[in-house]
From TrEMBL:
The keyword Glycoprotein does not apply. NCBIfam families: IV_pilin_GFxxxE. This is Prepilin-type N-terminal cleavage/methylation domain-containing protein. It is a single-pass membrane protein. PROSITE patterns: PROKAR_NTER_METHYL (PS00409).
């Protein structure tokens, strides 16, 4: 007798093995997704700080970068190089699943021409964390003098 196909026992064995593999792999995959989301938030934040700094140099005007909440930050653009006058404010949000925590006393960085340096005289430390898993964090520092971003 020539039969084709699989027996019920073979199918159940394959399903059981796949279930065990899924149970082992799922937590690792979810942790990977959380780390990826935090990394995307860190890269977005660093990119926006660098953009504000380079615009201050390029346009010969002042830019103030500040954290305004757990999921947002803003860039204030002034027409003058000494941060006088009424700013144009751009509020930006972090990616979904991430939040900002200010770790330093100084909550803003002021970039002024001609070199786009940070005139606040103190570094700004910000932690980007996952909202669903508190152990997934990255810290950024906007340096005191040069205003560059260091990802730790």
């Amino acid at each position: 007798m020539n039969t084709r196909g699989f027996t019920l026992l073979e199918v159940l064995t394959v399903i059981a093995v796949l279930g065990i593999l899924m149970a082992i792999a799922t937590p690792s995959y979810l942790a990977y997704l959380q780390r990826l989301t935090v990394q995307q938030g860190v890269q977005q934040f660093a990119r926006d700080v660098d953009r504000a700094r380079s615009q201050a140099r390029r346009t010969n005007s002042c830019r103030i970068f500040s954290v305004v909440g757990p999921s947002s930050y803003q860039i204030q653009s002034y027409a003058s190089p000494n941060c006088a006058g009424t700013p144009i404010t751009e509020t930006l949000n972090m990616p979904a699943g991430t939040q900002l925590t200010l770790k330093s006393v100084q909550g803003s960085a002021s970039f002024r021409p001609p070199y786009g340096v940070n005139f606040t005289a103190m570094p700004v430390d910000v932690t980007v964390a996952s909202t669903s898993h508190v152990n997934v964090t990255r810290t950024l520092r906007i340096t005191a003098v040069m205003g560059s971003v260091v990802i730790q």
